[in-house]
Amino acid sequence: MVASLRSSMQTSKTLEPSDSETTDPAHTMWTKLHSKFNKQTSVTQTMAQKRIEAHIFTKNARFDTYFDTLNRLRSEANAVGCSISDGDLLSTFFASLPETCLWSFRNMSGSHRKQGQSSNTSPIVPTALAANTLQTDARPPLICHNCKRRGHSKPRCYAPGGGLEGQAPAGWIPPRPAGRFTTAAATSDNTPPGTSTSTAAPIALSTIYDLGSDLEGTTHSPVSRPVVDCLDPRYRGEAPRFLDSQADSVAGNGVPYSHVLISSSNQSIAPTFLDSGASESCVRDKSYFISYIERKAYGRMAADGDSGKFAIEGYGVAKFTVKTQSGNINTFTTAALHTPSFAMNLLPIPAFDAKGFVGSWGRE
């Protein structure tokens, strides 16, 4: 028993710092220990913060592994005196994402804000959709400005007006002639009363959507906007172009137009169709739009002549909830015209192709 006590006393004596005396008060001993072993210096704090900033999310990384390491680095940083909050970690995560991902977060945030304002949800598109299994490239797709097709440029285009016109290989199928949507003029108070509107879906309107990485500044500012700007260049389409060409005449006639956020939705549900011949979305009900510009105009389908005239109340970004073939529910947003005279919503196949979806005709 005496031997064990002596051994314990010798062990405790070796743990005492050499520069402290057993007769020193407790406060004096604690001050000496703190000055010798304290690691909470500005240097260690700076190094801990730099380790967090250097831990970025790569393209092929796993979310669980990334956040486990990020939480461990935060614990180490807080242990040396830093104060790293959850918001700081999220900012680090968003800043490390590629620009092609940030557009989805901004639209998702705007969609959640709209859902909080209204309990009504958008109807599910009755047409079944199957997610494309092909991996899309992060770079913007190459689009020919002559024939609007993907995969080549105008100097290498076989279509009329292209650099290789008349040199197409055997079996080459020319594209459908663009510009079926031939005329668009602004309406005013002096519109003839006999003007008729068509309830048929327009088979015209050509656009290929390129939602590429043109988000300047979003890498350094991951804060989302509550209102989606439908005049943003990422929503490339015929609607902004031909309606903007009528801006002077519309303003001259005193027809107001404004940029508004839709906060309410009606109960009417219009059928939705996919059309391979059209590439511009036409939406019947205003409740589908999450961002909207009121601007009155009218269009005319070349196939129907004067009887094919239809009214356009405005345009913006419409949101649809689509059900994939596997049963998943996804949100699909696209630039669209507001055409209340139509009997249905019209979604173009190329708009789905640009976002990685393939139309599957029929019902499940």
Structure commentary:
The protein is an alpha+beta fold. The protein is 28% helix and 17% strand. The protein is built from nine helices and ten strands. It has helices at residues 2-14, 26-37, 42-54, 63-79, 86-96, 99-117, 238-244, 247-252, 349-353, and strands spanning 129-131, 181-185, 259-260, 272-275, 281-283, 289-301, 309-323, 329-338, 345-348, 357-359. The strands form three sheets. Strands 2, 3, 5, 6, 7 and 8 form a six-stranded mixed β-sheet that branches. A two-stranded antiparallel ribbon has the order 1-10. Strand 7 (309-323) and strand 8 (329-338) form a beta hairpin. The longest helix has 19 residues, at 99-117. The chain is elongated and about 105 Å long.
Measured distance between first and last alpha carbons: 84 Å
Task: Please give the count of helices.
Answer: 9
Strand content: 15-25%
- Uncertain spans: 11-17, 126-134, 179-267
Largest sheet: 6 strands, mixed
Number of strands: 10
Report helical residue fraction: 25-40%
Q: What Rg, in angstroms, do the CA atoms define?
A: 31 Å
Structural class: alpha+beta
Shape: elongated
Oligomeric state, counting identical vs distinct chains: single chain
The helix/strand order is HHHHHHEEHHEEEEEEEHE
Mean pLDDT: 65
Element layout with pairings:
Blueprint: H1 2-14, H2 26-37, H3 42-54, H4 63-79, H5 86-96, H6 99-117, E1 129-131, E2 181-185, H7 238-244, H8 247-252, E3 259-260, E4 272-275, E5 281-283, E6 289-301, E7 309-323, E8 329-338, E9 345-348, H9 349-353, E10 357-359
Parallel strand pairs: 4-9, 5-8
Antiparallel strand pairs: 1-10, 2-6, 3-6, 6-7, 7-8
Helix pairs in contact: 3-4
